[in-house]
Write a structure and sequence with these properties.
38% of the residues lie in helices and 26% in strands. It has 183 residues and is an alpha+beta fold. The protein has one domain: OB fold (Dihydrolipoamide Acetyltransferase, E2P), CATH 2.40.50. The strands form two sheets. Strands 2-3-4-7-6 form a five-stranded mixed barrel. Strands 5-8 form a two-stranded antiparallel sheet. A hairpin with a 5-residue loop joins strand 6 and strand 7. The longest helix is centred in the N-terminal third of the chain and has 29 residues, at 2-30. Residues 42-174 form the TNase-like domain.
Length: 183
């Protein structure tokens, strides 16, 4: 009886182990390698593999150029130009991050940029979604980011922010204003 149980357990372990190995091998073979380059195409097209927050994403693309600073040789991070979304712990942080994720995670996007990096080694740019919309603008339209006037004099982003304020959506909603006042 004990021998039969041991044989059954051995067969089960072997079967599950083989299935797991097979699935792992399939997953490895279907993954495309991360593209690496010392050139920075404009626009830069790549798959989004990470969402840091509402206005920062990571691409499946490695840039080896010196402008990237300490991020040289690492996956390129994009800091959205013209906008600033709520920081961790602030009202609407999670909503903005989820919005960005829903719009672009595991999708191929285009980054329009001027080849400028910030002090953290992030490429500054506008994220063009597969449907042609600009994610930076969509965040402001939906009240999930503000026009970052310190670094942008764009009239279009300013108008998008004013419209979101008038509509009282997102961070401009009564709930957003109350939450901000409490913090």
């Amino acid at each position: 009886m004990l021998r039969q149980i041991a044989v059954c357990l051995l067969v089960l372990v072997f079967t599950f182990g083989l299935t797991s190995f097979k699935n792992s091998a399939l997953a490895q073979s279907s993954k495309k390698p991360i593209e690496k380059s010392s050139d920075l195409p404009n626009p830069l097209r790549a798959e989004v593999i990470g969402i840091q927050d509402g206005d920062t994403i990571e691409l499946k693309y490695v840039y080896n150029g010196k402008k990237a600073g300490f991020r040289m040789g690492k996956a390129v991070r994009i800091r959205f130009t013209h906008i600033n979304s709520p920081e961790r712990g602030r009202p609407y942080y999670k909503v903005a991050k989820q919005f960005t994720s829903d719009k672009c995670f595991h999708k191929v996007v285009s980054i329009k940029h001027n080849g400028e990096f910030d002090r953290y080694g992030r490429l500054l740019g506008e994220v063009v979604l597969p449907d042609g919309k600009i994610l930076n603008k969509e965040l402001v339209k939906n009240g999930l980011a503000v026009h970052f006037k310190k670094y942008s004099d764009s009239q279009e982003y300013s108008e998008l922010e004013i419209k979101a304020k008038k509509q009282k959506i997102g961070i401009w909603s009564p709930q957003g204003q109350v939450s901000a006042a409490v913090k």
